[in-house]
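User: Here's a structure from my thesis project, written as structure tokens. My advisor, Dr. K., wants to see whether a designed sequence matches the one we expressed. Can you design one independently, without my sequence as a hint?
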């Protein structure tokens, strides 16, 4: 018995390609009978436990706002840099430990490679992405060897730095590498001679290969990445994105579709959206859009992306031979968005090449033309609260969306934070939006009414059913629904973490069933922990309040 065989690190081609090809829907391992379980020797039992724990861990796919921003920024840079030798820009991802830097850049690389392979089926020998980790006390030769190792190039210890460097650069060009990911780059201290030399080596590759370079590391500004002449050069050539700590109460914009359970809000939004798409079909005038508004963490992005998935799957099922069709476009409104930036966002999604010097009108016309040609029928615009219609820039960017609304016979769906409070319906443009869009509001799961309790139970049941535990009785967690709601504040992401971490602990300690002890031991996100007060503490606070009252 084995899991999936040996796992190569991401810094090898074998490991990277396995990561890219790995399905986002992990296959559940088969549960053995009690008799078969008893026959396992200790080594086999360890492998069996590992496979189940790995399955539980893989089931959680969390896309934070930082990850979305990094992937969106990186994708745009790759498109913008395409074919350029000069004037290319790179991306620097900086932040504290544990805030998703490596996750972000590897997900960017995975999406880029998958897209490249999809657009070029049957092309062999191509290496779209290289991923390396900067070794401690790195020298220029060591950096070149790291890339050579990823590529599988033979290197002898007596080979000179220059020979290795030239060989690596030549192979990268031949293999069509278009994205180079460099992790743990904080190990290059530009204030030291060795760090400066290793940085120069990366700069050499940057200049020699028409690829987009992405660096990730710990608190890079504080660690001297932008100091001195080299630092200023990096600052002038790289876009910087900073990651920060997050809680599970942030929206799950890219949920694991296989495990997503339709909440009342999702059902309402998808049903309303599907009706609008049908009602808008073939209309140029008189179409209606949908606005989804609500507090942070209430599933706005999950809802609209689920709507998009249902629509695209249905479209492809009805027209299986329709090649080149793009039924759905999804974009995130960038901070301080301008009309041109919005056009560029859609162009980046479509994979349209554009250069920064092209005028707004040209990009807009190109985007609208392609949307019509590919039969786009649903356009999802997320984080739309960043458009403040009370400002000149916000109004102009809103007008750009209105231009696309008028130019493309598609249904438009906007999602954002508390949009009425943020001025979305203010002024002339706001009133125009209110007249053309239906509004729906999302909220956290409640637990006051019988209907809310039933919905919460319907969320717990399929998660519990997916567990791979030998002695866990179905319905155990459902009976603890009230406690689970108290612990998580009704947030889906927090519930997901709580159950799956408890399940893995039950495998580790051999109990094979989730108990209250396992659940109590899980440390949840800050938002969930801060809102939860154990019953004993609540009784203590209530008693203290009664005692203090006259």
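Assistant: Designed independently from the structure alone:
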């Amino acid at each position: 018995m084995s899991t999936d065989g040996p796992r190569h690190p991401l810094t090898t081609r074998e490991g990277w390609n396995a990561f890219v090809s790995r399905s986002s829907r992990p296959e559940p391992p088969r549960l053995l009978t009690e008799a078969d379980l008893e026959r396992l020797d200790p080594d086999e039992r360890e492998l069996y436990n590992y496979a189940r724990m790995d399955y539980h861990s893989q089931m959680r796919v969390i896309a934070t706002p930082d990850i979305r921003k990094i992937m969106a920024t990186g994708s745009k840079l790759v498109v913008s840099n395409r074919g350029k030798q000069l004037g290319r820009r790179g991306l620097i991802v900086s932040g504290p430990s544990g805030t998703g830097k490596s996750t972000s850049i590897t997900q960017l690389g995975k999406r880029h490679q998958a897209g490249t392979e999809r657009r070029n089926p049957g092309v062999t020998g191509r290496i779209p992405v290289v991923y390396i980790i900067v070794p401690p006390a790195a020298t220029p030769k060591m950096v070149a060897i790291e890339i050579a190792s990823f590529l599988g190039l033979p290197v002898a210890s007596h080979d000179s730095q220059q020979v290795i460097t030239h060989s690596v650069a030549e192979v990268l060009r031949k293999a069509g590498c278009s994205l180079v990911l460099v992790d743990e780059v904080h190990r290059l201290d530009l204030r030291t001679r060795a760090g400066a030399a290793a940085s120069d080596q990366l700069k050499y590759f940057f200049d020699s290969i028409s690829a987009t370079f992405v660096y990730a590391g710990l608190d890079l500004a504080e660690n001297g990445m932008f100091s001195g002449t080299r630092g200023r050069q990096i600052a002038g050539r790289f876009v910087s994105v900073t990651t920060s700590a997050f809680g599970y109460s942030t929206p799950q914009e890219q949920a694991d579709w296989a495990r997503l359970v339709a909440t009342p809000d999702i059902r309402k939004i998808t049903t309303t959206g599907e009706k609008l798409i049908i009602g808008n079909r073939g209309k140029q005038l008189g179409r209606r859009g949908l606005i989804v508004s609500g507090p942070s963490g209430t599933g706005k992005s999950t809802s609209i992306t689920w709507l998009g998935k249902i629509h695209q799957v249905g479209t492809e099922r009805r027209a299986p031979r329709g090649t080149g069709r793009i039924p759905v476009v999804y974009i995130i409104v960038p901070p301080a968005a301008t009309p041109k930036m919005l056009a560029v966002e859609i162009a980046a999604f479509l994979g349209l090449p554009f250069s920064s010097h092209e005028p707004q009108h040209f990009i807009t016309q190109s985007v609208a033309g392609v949307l019509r040609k590919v039969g786009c029928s649903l356009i999802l615009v997320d984080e739309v609260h960043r458009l403040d219609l009370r400002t000149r820039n916000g109004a102009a960017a809103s007008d750009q969306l209105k231009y696309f609304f008028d130019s493309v016979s598609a249904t438009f769906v906007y999602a954002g934070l508390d949009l009425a409070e943020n001025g979305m319906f203010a002024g002339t443009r706001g009133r125009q939006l209110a007249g053309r869009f239906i509004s729906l509001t999302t909220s956290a799961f409640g637990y006051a009414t019988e209907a809310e309790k039933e919905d919460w139970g319907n969320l717990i049941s399929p998660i519990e059913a997916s567990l791979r535990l030998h002695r866990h009785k179905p319905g155990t967690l459902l009976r603890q629904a009230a406690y689970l709601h108290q612990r998580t504040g009704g947030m889906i992401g927090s519930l997901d973490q709580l159950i799956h971490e408890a399940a893995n602990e039950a495998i580790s300690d051999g109990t094979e069933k989730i108990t209250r002890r396992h659940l109590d031991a899980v440390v949840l996100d800050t938002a969930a922990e801060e809102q939860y007060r154990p019953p004993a503490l609540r009784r203590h606070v209530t008693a203290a309040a009664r005692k203090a009252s006259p």
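When you compare it with your expressed construct, this may help: The two ends are 69 Å apart (CA to CA).
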